Amino acid sequence: MAILKKIMDKARFRTRANPVSRNLQKWSLSLFLALAVAAPALAQQIARVKDVAYVRGVRSNQLVGYGLVAGLNGTGDGRRVPFTRQMLANMVNQFGVTFDSVQLRAENVAAVMVTAELPPYAKEGAKLDATVSAIGDAESLQGGTLLLTALRAGNNEVYAVAQGPVSVGTPSTGRRMRGAHLTTGLAVQGAIVEKEVPSTIVGETDTLTICLRRADFTTAMRTADAINLHFHQKVAEAVDGGSIAVKIPQSYTGDTIGFISEMELAPVEPDTLAKVVINERTGTIVVGKDAVITPVAVSHGDIRIFVGGRDEAAALPDELHVLELYGAKVGEVASALNAIGVRPEDLVAIFEAIDRAGALQATLEFM
User: Fold this and answer.
1) How far apart are CA 85 and CA 102, in angstroms?
2) Theoretical Cys-Cys bridge with 136: which of 77, 168, 199, 268, CB 3.0 to 4.6 Å?
3) pLDDT value, residue 176
């Protein structure tokens, strides 16, 4: 249990004139730190295999298309976007109407890129949301309708078509909302799947591969062990830090889906990298449970931090804020600093100094 010692000056904290307030503040800080220390040790975080990994071959695919949005109230592309008029002329020509694109005025039409995500096992006829984004100088897509647009995958094959009204998330009063982004909208359920993407999840030797969402050697070993324990036989083996090979047992021959469903429910304890993430604007700190600070002394402004104790013979002025912690974890130091009102920029500077001194046994990241 960390021992916290605070020497607070009267000007900033105003506690010397009120012993009740001072005791309450000390008690509150002690309770806060006790909870911070105890929280990571309350229970090991157990997840399911499906939460930390996925079956190779089960994946989504990105689709993209190039089309037109019509029905705009004069907010479409202007004459400075000739390809919009050319696209509109080509589309109208398909209906037997022939004229030169130069004769067209496209203020009510906008050229757009349409994107969608094709989820795994999506069948023909399934509907998807499609994102519609203007690529010309259109001012707004509000009130427009996306015309029939083919959506292609990376292999240039058409897997879906999209058409329908475009919503930009603003009311129909005609008044522009502050901060509204009117050149990107959503065609809700506006895309229809025309072709399935085949998925192969089982190899020739009745083996499938489980891929971790976050590669980690320890988690890979634990996942393999968890699957073996769940089925009471050795069916899984870690291949590397990101994948596990799983052989379908004979008892599940012909029932691959049943085996995967049962395997996904196996409990596993994932390992996490010790990490400290700091939001530089707000001073918010997110700390991993294994992040610790080895003995170090930090001096920053009127703050003195001693992790692992200090020389009691060294006198310190009363106007300093002194934090003494023994065997401290990062959460303890962060809680203590927040409790005495350290500013976000000072918080960032202190942890950067601790990290550069080699005392922070974790990865430091900033948002």
Assistant:
1) 7
2) 77
3) 52
- Kindly report the pTM of this predicted structure: 0.68
Do 103 and 146 meet the contact criterion of CB atoms below 8 Å apart?
A: no
Spatial separation of the C-alpha atoms in residues 258 and 293, rounded to whole Å:
47
Report if residue 279 sits inside a domain. yes
- Same domain for 107 and 156? yes
DSSP for 243-281, written as a single string? EEEEEPPGGGTT-HHHHHHHHHT-EE------EEEE-TT
> What CATH number corresponds to the domain at position 213?
3.30.56
Name the residue among 345, 337, 297, 343 with its Cα closest to residue 321: 337
**Cα gap 75→110, rounded to integer Å:** 8
Among 107, 42, 43, 34, residue whose Cα is nearest residue 76: 107
Higher pLDDT, 324 or 294: 294
Nearest-angstrom CA–CA distance, 234 and 64: 44
**Whether 290 contacts 272, CB under 8 Å:** yes
pLDDT reported for residue 287: 79
Last residue of a domain, one of 235, 251, 268: 268
Q: Tell me: the pLDDT tens digits for 189-231?
A: 999 999 998 888 877 678 999 999 999 999 999 999 999 999 9
What is the distance between the alpha carbons of residues 326 and 83, in angstroms, rounded to a whole number?
69
Percent helix / strand / coil, the chain, rounded to 5: 25, 30, 45
Q: Is residue 238 part of a domain?
A: yes
CA–CA separation, 338 vs 177, rounded Å?
Answer: 37
Domain-embedded: residue 4: no
Whether 115 is in a domain gets the answer yes
* Tally of CA atoms within 13 A in the half-sphere of 92 that contains its CB: 16
The answer to whether residues 124 and 218 belong to one domain is: no
Domain that holds residue 127: 62-193
**Cα separation, 310 vs 306, whole angstroms:** 6
The token pair that represents 163 in the structure block: 């058409």
The whole-angstrom separation of Cα 8 and Cα 322 is 8
Interval 57-91: pLDDT, tens:
899 999 999 999 999 988 888 777 788 888 887 88
Looking at the 3D structure of the chain, how many domains does it have?
Answer: 3
